[in-house]
Amino acid sequence: MAEEVKLFGAWGSPYSRRIELALKLKGLQFEYIEEDLYNKSPALLKYNPVHKKVPVLVHNGKPVAESLVILEYIDETWKHNPFLPTDPYEKAKARFWARFIDEKFWPAAKKAMASREREREEAIEEAQQHLKTLESELKEKKIFGRESLGFVDIAAHLLVWLVVAQEAFGVEILTEEKFPAVHELYRRLADEAVFKECMPPKEQLIAYLKEAIEETRPHLKALESGLKERKFVGGESLGFVELAANVIKFPTVHEWYQRFADDAVFKECAPPRSDSLPIIKLYLEPPASK
Amino acid sequence: MASSDHMVLLDFLGSPFGMRVRLALAAKGIEYQIEEEDLTQSKSSLLLKVNPVHKKIPVLIHNGKPICESLIIVEYIDEVWKDRCPLLPADPYQRAKAKFWADFIDKMVYPPSDKVWAANGEEQEAGKKEFIDRIKLLEGELKSNPYFGGETLDFLDIAFLPLYYWFHTFETFGKFSIEAECMEEEFVYASLPHPHKVYDLAIEYKKKLGI
What we know:
The complex is a heterodimer of chains A (290) and B (211).
Chain A: E1 5-9, H1 14-25, E2 31-34, H2 42-47, E3 56-59, E4 62-65, H3 67-77, H4 88-114, H5 117-141, H6 151-155, H7 157-169, H8 180-191, H9 193-198, H10 202-229, H11 240-246, H12 251-262, H13 264-269, H14 273-284
Parallel strand pairs in A: 1-2
Antiparallel strand pairs in A: 1-3, 3-4
Helix pairs in contact in A: 1-3, 4-5, 4-7, 7-10, 10-14
Chain B: E1 7-11, H1 16-27, E2 33-36, H2 45-50, E3 59-62, E4 65-68, H3 70-80, H4 92-118, H5 121-144, H6 155-165, H7 167-174, H8 186-191, H9 195-209
Parallel strand pairs in B: 1-2
Antiparallel strand pairs in B: 1-3, 3-4
Helix pairs in contact in B: 1-3, 1-6, 4-5, 4-6, 4-7, 7-9
């Protein structure tokens, strides 16, 4: 029977790269579909209606979402080169550490990179606390980084991503001096052929990450100065821009916004998102003085 | 289970996460000892020793080895006592679906539910709205793929049921009503505190924490 394996991913998503890594470690053929996260395909929305995110693995038409769930699915379906140990206690530990990396460490690291000034100091502090935890676990128990690459090593691929991101954002979270054991793991992973294949070229990734932040900054500055004179962007009443800016805080509104953003007719009539920021900027230019 | 097996569950009465573990142990017919942790007091030295990373309950200690995180514990129990009452299906795709929805419950349903009973005013209202929306999503999935109501308790039942046990508490604090399904099996009621007791505990808990 022909196996059909598809991966819906995104170039700049470390979680999507994680699944590529897993598929390659198992030596599997798969079709990769690149998603534009600002313009999600109907297929992605069909396969992951709950979260609408990448990565999604589709195996013979059946979708699996959430990267750690996908990793376990891959491991259970293709049993050679196992990621997880067979002993239930060791398995439980591997799951624990993968979750720790995903749910504690990575969000703190992301926050540290996205924050500015005072907030940044605190955020770095938090991320480093988690690294300390990883450091002592690695020193004492060697849960991961053993002979063959396992579940936690795949999750720890985020460390490789982190080091590139640190350079892009000029932030120091993981250093060899402070976290020698974690750094050694990072080095070992970064040098693995399969990991290298699954990382985007470093300079390109740095440029991509920088752009993602820098792109918004001049426009945010424009929004800042434009708003100084006014109650709302459009004048006295709430307009589109307020909605666009606030959708993040109001989940129901965000869903509403997503629904019309996903509508085919609306898409035809709306400017592509990358164009809309300069439009907003233009809108905010102070009127030419007479 | 070998007579030499020693099981200790470090738990806090009323914790839905602890309830998950109790359900799994009861489903498999495993005997265990409870060590009560009082979350309104400072953490016990036992807790800090067995869960130094998160310092949270539940922790299952099996022959001296600690396992943390409720769903990880439930999977562990399922794998060690695989000879009876399987909690997860054998098919990898069905397993992935069960794990996906358990993850959904943890990431998308529990957090707003905390606001429903612990927060006030606007924050509580936002929590209620989010909570109901997420429950509706879950319900939609359950209608098309019935997990609950089977012959025996399974992984998703275990992930969800304790939350259901808190509905009475949510409804009372949040002054609203939630419709939900209920599993009827004897040992479910035997293992878990009565919903009204959970409500009383929640009141006490809030008082002690000053919220």
